[in-house]
Amino acid sequence: MSAAARKVLALAVRPADTPVPVDSARAIAGLGLANDRHADPRSPRQLLLAGAPAYHDLHMAPLTLRENLLLDLDTAALESGMLLRIGLEVTLRLTFQCEACGAVAARLGGPARALRGRRGMLARVETGGMLRAGDPVTILAARATPLSDDWHDRVATVLDAVPPGMVITYADLARVAGVQSSYCRAFPRALAKLGPTRAARAIPARADTPAPRWDGAGFFDTNVGVRSDI
């Protein structure tokens, strides 16, 4: 697809569970979209970008994927770490492919595996500004350090970033790693497989420990640096 063909086809904001179509939306650097439930400075899931080809191929009704931006490109071809310029102002940093959950599959009326690799790409807002339907989409030459699509790997990456002498609660670990909070109950077994050093850095919220707690603040500022050597 040529660069000239890439554009934003539609926008939606999610003040609650149901996405609301809009003509424009304000992207806030480091936070997400204004008035969107997923706006969170410590989350890699601030926005969801879906591709029109998935809607065409799977014959889905509009907003089935609950996306914020619908693009006229196949998001399965996008990679973590890519930087997208939207319009003249906004830069998005792609984090990882969104998993195909059962709730979305139910709206599709088929199994979750039909959406594997087609749900869309999650992103963070690097540079804020106004987003509008029809805005051109440009893939920049610069890249950011990628994050894994595998949540186990992302958990390990966050644990490696915990400052010396500090610990992180399961809830904050899930938040920064972009893991559904329901996965917290799987953390003890998953952490054991990552080794005792990493496992010791994560604790339940009510754990009795004198170690100061890190909530993940600054993770996306210090752990992920932009490089332009590609």
Automatic annotation (TrEMBL):
Residues 20-140 form the MOSC domain. Signal peptide: none annotated. It comes from the Bacteria. InterPro entries: MethylDNA_cys_MeTrfase_DNAb (IPR036217), MoCF_Sase_C (IPR005302), Pyrv_Knase-like_insert_dom_sf (IPR011037), WH-like_DNA-bd_sf (IPR036388). This is MOSC domain-containing protein.
